[in-house]
Amino acid sequence: MSNILHNATVDTLLERRSIRKFKPKPLPDDVVETLETVAQHAASSQFLNDWSAIRITDVAIKKRLAEIAGQPYVATAPLLYVFVLDEHRNAAIAARKGVEVASDAFTLNGSYRYTQAQNDAVLALHAMETAAYSLGLGCVILGSLLNDVPALIDLLNLPEYTYPVLGIAIGKPDQEPAIKPRMPRSMQFFENEYPSSDEKLLSGLDSFDAEVHKYYDLRDTERPVDAFSDQVAANSTDESVNAKAVATPAKKQGFRLER
Prior knowledge:
The chain is an alpha+beta fold. The chain is 38% helix and 11% strand. The longest helix is centred in the middle third of the chain and has 24 residues, at 111-134. Belongs to the flavin oxidoreductase frp family. Keywords: Flavoprotein, FMN, NADP, Oxidoreductase.
């Protein structure tokens, strides 16, 4: 028997599922303003506000983003954003205050601020996503936009000290997918320290594999989803991820991840 406490916020989060088919109706301005304002209220490391979001309304750019993602539905999203970690704005502010941004004393382009700005962008996107679901909308988070980061940077005219993090498509749902199974809490929540043995860590894996294998994704209703462990194994030797490495494009954007 579950001991989960329920209220509107909890139930919105528990019902979360990715929506990849939207009704074509545009979203009204008050919805857009609400979602963007909520995103701005997410936590921000040291109050640096080091993220930005680009709302995509140009049909040609949407089409190109769909090509980069390899997902045609991206082009049909009524509301589409790309969130970026953004130290460019803060660099401009610092320069106005007399900081030599090109010097070694400048630290907003280091690995710590890169990761913190990335965290801030994700937190803002998640706040927007949760607000959208609470308004009866559907969303899908688009990590697939990072399939070709250099092309994305060029397409969106991203300046130095910025880097794309995630996209999100939002609209009125035109499908009702099942909720994906979730991993047993015992495999993700630990007390005081990480489990001392892999046997203990993976104690719930067999039952989770079986549960995942019963799930049918609307993208391929003809076959059940592979067991979770099979998905992990396949991804653990996926050489295509090497082409998506962060270091080279991040360096071209002015970040110094080695420090």
